[in-house]
Amino acid sequence: MVDIKVKPRPIGATATVGRHGHPQVTSETGGGLAIVTGASEPGFNPLDLMFSSLAACLVLSARIAAGRLQLLDRLVEVRVHVTGEKAKSEPTRIEEFTIDFAIYGDFGVDEKMQIIRLAEEICTVGNTLKGSPSFEVRTA
Question: What is the model's pTM?
């Protein structure tokens, strides 16, 4: 029997902002991203990052799902578009997510729905957003 050791990927992010300028976000692995704040400014704002995280998690989970369902050899591409509606009352939040899946390959509707349902079960980001995670807030 082969003992497979999986090295866990460090997770987390740090955001910084000064008195002026845009926030900068750095991942635990050293990736960086400038955050935009203007309504028409190209780039990612905090809500875009949340939608992007869900979309990325779902496409990766759909690929995993296709593999588990032994359909991966027919998968050409998965696209997920995520957007949402902000709540009209306090506290400010996204009240409803809209998720559009496009699965390309030689699949019928039932197989696509199997992939989507399993992807939703696998997706850590989606499972977190559907739940009620606790927050531990600390200060330095």
Answer: 0.91
